[in-house]
Amino acid sequence: MGKRAVAAIVVLTASIALRPLAVPASPQSTPRSSQRAAAKGATAYATPRTPWGDPDLQGVFTNSNEYMTPLERPEAFAGRRLEDLSAEELTRLRASATKDMIAALPGGRVRGPDDWWLQNLDVSKRNQPWLIVDPPDGRLPALTADGQARAAQRVRSSFVGGPFNGPEDLNPLERCISRGVPGSMIPVMYGNNYEIVQTPGYVAIIYEIVHETRLIPLDARPHVGAAISQHMGDPRGRWEGDTLVVETTNFKTLSVYRAANAPTLRVTERFTRVAPDRILWRATIDDPKTWTKPWTIAMPLTSDPDPILPFECHEHNYGMLNILRAARAEENATVGQGKR
After folding, report:
1. pLDDT tens for each residue of 106-152
2. Would residue 283 count as lying in a domain?
3. Which residues, including other chains, have CB under 8 Å from residue 43's CB and lie 6 or more apart?
4. What is the largest CA-CA distance in the chain?
5. Residue 331 confidence (pLDDT) above 70
6. DSSP conformational letter for 211
7. Is residue 330 in some structural domain?
8. 311-338 burial string, b = 16+ CB within 10 Å, else e?
9. d(CA 161, CA 157)
10. Domain hosting residue 241, numbered range
């Protein structure tokens, strides 16, 4: 197998010291002591600058070890926030993380050996026990009536079963189309690597999986018109101090995140370099047609010494081809048995 690739599966649906994130999504919901600690930490590290004076975020980063971190706060931590957890509790969580990950892998008739998923990540080094940092309770806001209707629609993925009548019955990642935003930053089993490149007036983010690149202008130009939609949306960036803020709109329904309403979804990401080898990434998801209020996820990106690898998805997408072939073979076998 390749360094970060799994030979038997080409497409999939969905190391740093561990501690809860020090920078929350919403200062208003942060205790004063945490705000002081965050401010103290911020002054301890001076963000490097590019030759033209912008904060320098460039490099190759990964968040593989955050794979399968629960989106929402588990019920076992009801009433608690990330900053309330002790080092001892985090140690216990890390110790069981690998076992929990393997137990949650899809079952069914076809499944690769468990060790495949352990070669390129170490979830025992994950940063935090859940991803939502705002609302403070770590839970998704309630869905609107429209959001509930969309969430009830059929999920198209090989991980949840067929029918597989054509490529449209698989999701955009399995079809080598896109993981969308912020989906492209949510780690899967491998290939969770991102390269940030900067020039005057632009930031580019290259995603290893599905080999997508976002070109983010920084010149305050308006978003494109509502008639134009894109799988990765239409991003616009700006600097707020040392933080890159990227607001993205104009999504496509096919690849929109968590069945949101594509025309009204707005994703606001924040990239802050907090150490020479670490960027704090946060994304606020705001869609009044889907959730009753915005919500924010956060996780660290850690420097990776290796370059982004080619992700030749269409060229080697045997997974989708064989899923469709197997479905036809099952149909033919059923028809043949019926004729006996």
Report:
1. 665 556 676 666 666 676 677 788 899 999 999 999 999 999 999 99
2. yes
3. none
4. 78
5. yes
6. G
7. no
8. bebeeebebbeebbeebeeeeeeeeeee
9. 7
10. 49-306
AA letter at 60: V
| Amino acid, single-letter form, for residue 282 | R
Angstrom distance (rounded) from CA 203 to CA 199: 6
pLDDT in tens, 230-247: 999 999 999 999 999 999
The tokens describing 253, both together, are 């329904």
Given a cut of 80, is residue 19 above it in pLDDT? no
Domain count, the chain: 1
- With contact defined as beta carbons under 8 Å apart, do 29 and 136 qualify? yes
Give the span between the Cα atoms of 185 and 179, in whole angstroms: 9
Q: How many Cα atoms within 13 Å fall on the side-chain side of residue 192?
A: 29
Q: If we measure between CA atoms, which residue out of 132, 26, 127 comes closest to residue 67?
A: 127
Instruction: Specify if 174 maps to a domain.
Output: yes
Under DSSP, the state recorded for 33 is H
- Kindly state the tokens that stand for 117: 């998923």
Between CA 36 and CA 60 the distance in angstroms is: 30
Looking at this protein, which amino acid is placed at residue 330? E
Chain centroid offset of residue 306 CA? 20
Q: What six digits make up the tokens of 192?
A: 């969770």
Distances (CA, A) of 102 to 96, 159, 306: 10, 15, 26
Phi/psi of residue 55, nearest 5 degrees: -55, 135
pTM here is 0.81
pLDDT of residue 286: 98
Tokens 């660290």 — which residue?
300
Burial category of 122 from C-beta neighbours within 10 Å (exposed 0-12, middle 13-18, buried 19 and up)? middle
Phi, psi angle pair for 23, to nearest 5°: -110, 105
DSSP 213-256: EEEEE-S-PPPPPTT--BTT-EEEEEEETTEEEEEEE-B-TTT-
Asked if 269 and 282 count as a contact pair (C-beta separation under 8 A), the reply is: yes
Establish if 337 belongs to a structural domain.
no
